[in-house]
Amino acid sequence: MTGFLGLFRRLEGPQTLGRGPAFWALFALVLAGALAYPLFSDGYTVGNTVYFFVWVFIALSLSLIWGYGGSLSFGQTAFFGIAGYGYGILTINFGASYGFTWIALLLAIGMAALVAALLGYFMFFGRIGGVFLGIVTLAVTLMLERFMAQTAGPEWRIGAARLNGFNGMSAMPPLTIPWFGGPIVLFADVGLYYVVLAMLVLVYLALRILMNSSFGNVIVAIRENPERAEMLGYDIRKYQLITFVIGAALAGLSGVLYTVWGQYITPSSMGMTAASLPLIWVAVGGRSDLTATIIGTLVVLSGFQALTIYGSQYALVFMGVLLVLTVLIAPNGLVLGLITWVTKRVARRKQETA
Amino acid sequence: MALLQLRDLNKHFGGLHVTNSVNLVLEQGEIHCLIGPNGAGKSTLFRLILGEHHPGSGQIWFADEDITALKSFARIRRGLSVKFQVPGVFKSLSVRQNLEIALQSRLHGAALDKEIEGLLAFLNLEAEQAQLAGNLSHGQKQWLEIGMAISLKPRLLLLDEPTAGMSPEETHLTGEMVRRLNAAGMTVLAIEHDMAFVRQVAQRVTVLHLGQVFAQGSIDEIVADERVAAIYLGQAHA
C-alpha cells in the first residue's frame, strides 16, 4: 500500500513543472473541459482534434529522450512508421474480431520497441553519443523511408497486406472494442477521442511518476554529466537504452494511433520533414518538461494546421523561423520560458506583499 | 593491509609513455598524496584506476580483487569514488537533488532526507540547498562534488586537485573535511599542488615524474629530498 501511495507522491517533483493543489485543480479543470468538449462540438471536428492528440505521444517520446535524457534522436519517426505499418500488416491479415486490433496495437508497439532495443544496444553500448546519435538515428529513419518507398510492386506484400510504396498502405480496420450488442468500431469520432484522451492522461501521469522517480533522476544526471553519473556507480548505458526503448514505444503508439485514425500510412510519415517537425514542436514548447511539451505541441500543431489551410507554401517556412526564434529567444522553449517567467513574477509579487 | 595495488602499470598515448611501470601500494586507512609537475601522469593514473583508460599492461587490485578489466561503474560499486579536477556537478539541478542522485542507490525516504541534511551541514551548504549547482561558487562546487563522492560511502576516495581555485581558508576547511573523513575510516588518495594542503593532510606522499614513481615517503622526507626539489619543489620552494 505504501508503495502505491509512494507512486502518487512521485506525481510531483523537481523534474516536472506544476505542484500543489492549485496545479492539480487546474489539471482537473482542463481534463473536465476536454471530457465535456465533444458535447459542444460535432463528430467531425472532434475527430480532427484526435489528430492533434495522436502526435502528442511522439512529442513526449522526444521530450523523454532528448529533453530529459539529452540524446537528440531523429529516429522517433522510424519507430512511428514501424508501429504504424506493423499495425496495418497485422490487422489486414488477421482482421478486427475478438478485440485483435488491441493486440495488434500492443504487438506493433512491441515491434518498434524491439527495433529500438537492437539499435539502441549498438549505439549506447558502443558509446555512440552526442551528434553521432542524431546522425545514426536520422540515417535509420531515411533508410526506412527509402525502403518503404520502393515497395510499390505487387511482390512487396506480407500476407494479404500490400506495402504499396509511396501510395501507402490503407484500409486497415480501426480499433474495435468487442461488445455484446456487436463490436464498437472506433472511427475518427467521439469514441476514438475518449480512448486517445484516456491514453494521453495515463501516459502523461505515468511519465510524471517515472521522471520524478530515482530512474528519472539518473536520466537527468546523464544529460547533465554522463561521466559524473557513471562515477556514481550507474551503468549509464543501461539507463540510456531503457529510456530509448520507452521513447520508441511512445513514438510507436503515435504511429499506431495515426494509422488507426486515418486508416492510412505512407513512407513520407518517416521522411525528413516528418522527422524534423516533432523536434520543432518539442523545442518550441520546452523539451525538458512534459507539460510544456504537450502545450507546445498542441499550440504549434494547430497553428501549423491553420497556416496550411490559408497558405500551405509558407507553413513549413514558418516552422523553420519559429525554431530559429526559439533557439535565439528562449533556448529552453517558449512555453517553458513563459511558465518559468510567470511563476517567478508571481513568487516575487507574493514576497513583496508578504 | 593493502587496499589498492597498482602492479607494473603501463599506458602509452601514441609514442608517449604516460604511465611507466608504476607500482603503488595504498594502505587501508591512509591519506596518500600524489604530487608531481604538470604532465607527470597524475590524472592519467587516476583514469586508469577508475577504468576510464585501460592500461597497456599491468594490473590494478582493489581489496584483494583484480579490477583491471572492470567497467568504471562496477569499480565504483566495489567501493571506489572520485572527485574530478573540474567539478562535475549536475549544473541545472539543485544542490539537494545532486546529493539525492548520489545517495539514492543506497538510501530511501526518511533515511535519505536525514543523510542529505547531514551532508549539507558537513559541506557548509545548508543555505544553498535549493540553489542550482551551476550557480554555486567554484569552491562550493568542489565541496558539493566531494559530498557526492562520499555519499557512496567509498572505501577509497580519489580526489583530483580538491582545492584548485580555493582561497587559503577554503583550502584549510577542505583539509579538515578530508581529515574527518579519514578519521571515520576512509582511505584517501589525492592529487594536489597546494603544499600547505599536502602538509595538512598527507601521511605519505608519492612523487610522479615523467610517468614514473620518482620518490615516496613522508612529507618531510619528500621536502628534504634534493632530487625532488630539483624536478618539482625547487620551483615552488626556492
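qc> Chain B touches chain A through 28 residues (CB under 8 Å).
qc> done
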